[in-house]
Fold this sequence. Notes:
Blueprint: H1 2-8, H2 20-28, E1 37-41, H3 47-56, E2 61-66, E3 79-83, H4 89-98, E4 102-107, H5 113-123, E5 127-136, H6 156-167, H7 181-185, E6 186-192, E7 195-200, H8 229-232, H9 235-246, H10 252-262
Parallel strand pairs: 1-2, 1-4, 2-3, 4-5
Antiparallel strand pairs: 5-7, 6-7
Amino acid sequence: KFEKFFLSNKKNILNKWDHYFDIYERHFSRYKGKDIVLLEVGVSNGGSLNMWLDYFGENIKIYGIDIDPRCLEFKKNNVEIFIGSQSDKHFLEQIKNKIPKVDILIDDGGHSMEQQITTFNILFNHIKEDGIYLCEDIHTSYWLYFGGGFKRRGTFVEFSKNFIDQLNAFHSEQKQLRPNKFTHTVDSIHYYDSVLVIHKKRRTPPKNIVSGKISFDNVKISNYSPNIKPFRDNRLLIIINKILRFFKFKSIVWNDVVAVLCNPK
Length: 265
């Protein structure tokens, strides 16, 4: 396992937060012993390269990216190293033309906001349809030195929060949110302390299906709670709520007016 390798490591230095090993195991175990391609941004001292080789086995092909030319010494038969900046869009585009699509992309590079966002924007579509994207150390979105701050515009964490909307875009009623490539190719998003993991999978709009018998008489099968029927049938409430929604105001219609209509005194 990853933690066992880390604790017994006597070679190249390996620096990890202690809760990362369980995350790796949870999301990478299905690839163990398989013929896969892994791209790691941020080679550093080469310790993680050894860990991936030990865990996944000899059939893995690893591509590493680092800005330090000394990392070229880690090159071997199944490890290839590219030297360049992950914030350089042209460089990352060149990488895509040189390597096959990857099963796993790990961003453990410079951890600045520009670096993490640029790497995602350029390389995410170079992950296979059933592949995995993992970005480490996203806590730098809260560190001043890296350009971070709580709910600060332009941080990677704030950027990634849009993924939640995109994942659910099939259900959107508004033109501002429509299904895009992310919606059609992402199966799930996993947030951990300091880590974001995205599992890719080709998707089509989900279908609501029903099985079994109706429990009560005169009940129409619906995706909606029967308690919101007064809202659905009142055109004035619908118009008010649409206006509030357009300006992104909290819905007072839903919480207050509908409650009164549903529970008149």
